[in-house]
Amino acid sequence: MLAGSLVLLDGASRCAVAPEMAALFGGCALVGASIALLNVLMPGLIKREFPDREAGMTAVSRRA
Q: What pTM, to 2 d.p., does this model score?
């Protein structure tokens, strides 16, 4: 699901720079949706992979 959100973000950002107005709005909506999914999925992944260093790893992921 996380990889799918990243692929969606990549495709939507490419769509958002297309010259058509519908592609601009559609791409921006998809970019927002994929960022929202990543904001929900990433903390769960960090908690699963780094249960003892959750706060530090969350801070690192937000800086990058």
A: 0.71
